[in-house]
Amino acid sequence: MDALPHDIQRLIAYPHKRSIICMSADHRQGIVLTGSADFTASVIPWRTQEKEKQQDDGRPPTKQNNTKLHHKGKISCVKLFDEAQRAATSSYDKLAKIWDCSTGACTATLDGHTNNVKCIDTHGNTAVTCGWDNLVIMWDMRTGQQIAKMKEHIYYVNKVKFVDDGKYMVSCSDDCSAIVWDGRDGRPIHCLAQHTNGVNAAELVMHDKLVTASEDNRLMLWDLNTGTCLQKLTGHSGSVTSLAPTPTGVASGSYDGTVRCWDIPSGECTAVLNKFSDMVSDICVPRDGSIVAASYDKSVRVWDPITRCMLVCFVSHAQSASAVTVVEPEMTGDKHRRLLSTGHDGQFRVWTI
């Protein structure tokens, strides 16, 4: 990795008055979408704002060309798609919405849940949502109409995502299970039910393996084709909340303040990264295999992909760091990558790494 330049912090934006909960980024377009407890999502053209070289003097920038998307409850999940021309949001107001990012116009309201909508994902013209009414619902985003309403979960459903290029969907529930669904019609395929507490996250690895992370402090490795549990990965001493695929397997972040790297399919823990003093809120793994993680201790840290030594620690958020992603140099216009972070202080920051 090249030596870090002197202007490590490139941009600070203040898109929200309350906590930023979630972030989605289109790296090629230089746009992020943030979701907040202030009932709004913000479309932020961060690359344009960075080029304007707004100076951080402790005050909000005088000009922010952000498009605001409004709900009547806390934003729980956001997703950019169609080259950042459209956005999807879910909210505690029991609704999910589809937006035109350039105008801020709502093009479809997905109204079918009877409790908080916790997550939304999209593939093609289809959206999938889940919520605290125990439901997973598929939608046609062109019409806003339901394609399928899936009722197999018996308690809160917190995450849902398309995997394998839309062939499947996976939902994660507090009923201790994850369910694999047909991505075309919502038919249930496998119920993955060996965890002993709520399932927080799922990630596709090695093309045909699925890793789930749970409140029971464990990860489980599954055969996506058969639904068979192949490995139970133990070592965390707190709830496992976040997953990211690595070149050799998967990385996991936990309430125990550590990030662990796991080899797949052996299930061996190959590294324990334990510099945090509070729970890990988000992790990402850029192309070179380095580990980037955000924590409730207000820091964002980067570890070397080979030695697993910590390279960088940024401690600039005034409250917990909530989400991170890394933009590769061919998307930034210079030889350095960008690290994008959000926090419960309502700030969005751009760093050079």
Based on Cα principal axes, name the global outline. globular
Structural class category? mainly beta
Q: Within the largest sheet, what's the order of strands? A: 1-32-31-30
The profile of the biggest β sheet is:
4 strands, antiparallel
Radius of gyration: 19 Å
Instruction: Return the average pLDDT rounded to an integer.
Output: 93
- Note the gap between the termini: 9 Å
Per DSSP, what share of the residues sits in E-state strands of 2 or more residues?
over 45%
Count of individual helical segments: 1
Number of strands: 32
| Helix content percent band | under 10%
* Poorly predicted runs of 5 or more residues: 1-7
Gist of the model:
The protein is 2% helix and 52% strand. The protein is mostly beta strands and 353 residues long.
Topology (SSEs and partners):
Blueprint: E1 9-13, E2 20-26, E3 31-36, E4 40-44, H1 46-51, E5 67-70, E6 75-81, E7 86-91, E8 95-100, E9 106-111, E10 117-123, E11 126-131, E12 136-140, E13 145-150, E14 157-163, E15 168-173, E16 178-182, E17 188-192, E18 199-205, E19 209-214, E20 219-223, E21 229-233, E22 240-246, E23 249-254, E24 259-263, E25 269-273, E26 280-284, E27 291-295, E28 299-303, E29 310-315, E30 321-327, E31 338-343, E32 348-352
Distinctive features:
globular, 4-stranded antiparallel beta sheet, 353 residues, mainly beta
Write up this protein.
The protein is built from one helix and 32 strands. The longest helix is centred in the first third of the chain and has 6 residues. The chain is mainly beta and 353 residues long. The strands form eight sheets. Strands 1-32-31-30 form a four-stranded antiparallel beta sheet. It has a four-stranded antiparallel beta sheet with strand order 2-3-4-5. Strands 6-7-8-9 form a four-stranded antiparallel beta sheet, with no helix packed on it. A hairpin with a 5-residue loop joins strand 24 and strand 25.
